[in-house]
Design a protein that fits this description.
Elements: H1 8-12, H2 25-31, E1 37-41, H3 49-62, E2 67-73, H4 87-99, E3 102-108, H5 115-119, H6 123-126, E4 128-130, E5 136-137, H7 142-155, E6 161-165, E7 171-172, H8 173-184, E8 190-192, H9 195-204, H10 209-223, H11 233-238, H12 245-252
Parallel strand pairs: 1-2, 2-3, 3-6, 4-8
Antiparallel strand pairs: 5-7
Helix pairs in contact: 2-3, 3-4, 8-12, 9-10
Length: 255
């Protein structure tokens, strides 16, 4: 934790908290003393985000950690990504492989949890209007991926393996609309719009320009099939099927 005081509830449960900051290599090295496995959860979109990842890897190596794991992205072709921020995931993977540390790489599909952000707060009244074309995504809940990662790290060996964590099927936004229609008993439809129209709609909701372009990058990659891969590995790590689209949306939209 950057601020251990914010983890008081975890400490109350007997969980050991160590202080560290991705931007402070010395604090990371201290925090990793005596640690066998480190899970590097990918940072945000800050300009120095890639360097933050490198700091964690370097600290793990200096502290003598035996295994490093990383939460990357399940994308079909890193060379043709519209959302260039996603490239740093693969740069981090390369850095980990070059470090000499034993590793496990978790390539996670786009969280189902972001669907409410994409479709907007008035989706039940205005439908889904996105520049995603007919693109499909094998959406999975963040909680399912977190559980699977914990299972692998708790039970498995650190054998320089890459996991692709996706749902067992992919979904279009038309199917998202159909699921929401069924759950809400309303007629919700998906309309594929262009980037300019979408940007205007987001701007009308006072979304910052940087966030608009970031979101369009995600949706362009969806339109181009980057998020459509399907793998059984999430289900295998969970020991059950991941939460389906309909089940997940029911929870996310409280329907």
């Amino acid at each position: 934790m950057r601020d251990p005081a914010k983890a008081a509830d975890l400490q109350a449960q007997g969980i050991s908290i160590r202080q560290g900051d991705y931007r402070d290599p010395a604090s990371l090295e201290r925090a990793m003393q005596g640690i066998d496995k480190v899970l590097l959860v990918s940072g945000g979109g800050s300009d120095d985000g890639l360097q933050q990842h490198y700091n964690v890897v370097d600290a793990a190596k200096k502290a003598g950690v035996s295994c490093i794991a990383y939460t990357g992205r399940a994308l079909n072709d890193p060379a043709t990504l519209a959302n260039q921020l996603m490239v740093r995931h693969f740069q981090t993977e390369d850095y980990i492989k070059a470090s000499g540390l034993n590793y496990v790489l978790f390539r996670n599909i786009l969280y189902m949890d972001v669907v409410p952000l994409f479709v907007g707060p008035r989706v039940l009244e205005s439908g889904i209007n996105l520049p995603a074309g007919e693109g499909r995504v094998s959406f999975a809940l963040r909680s399912d991926m977190g559980e699977a990662i914990a299972n692998v790290l708790a039970e498995g060996d650190c054998e320089n393996r890459t996991y692709s964590f996706t749902n067992v099927e992919s979904y279009s936004f038309a199917e998202v609309a159909a699921a929401l229609s069924e759950l809400s008993s309303k007629d919700i439809r998906y309309t594929a719009i262009d980037d300019t129209t979408f940007a205007s709609q987001m701007k009308a909701r006072d979304v910052p320009d940087q966030q608009i372009q970031f979101t369009i990058g995600f949706l362009t990659d969806i339109r181009n099939g980057q998020e459509s891969a399907v793998s059984p590995e999430l289900a295998q790590a969970l020991g059950r099927k991941p939460t389906s689209l309909k089940e997940g949306l029911k929870t996310l939209f409280a329907l």
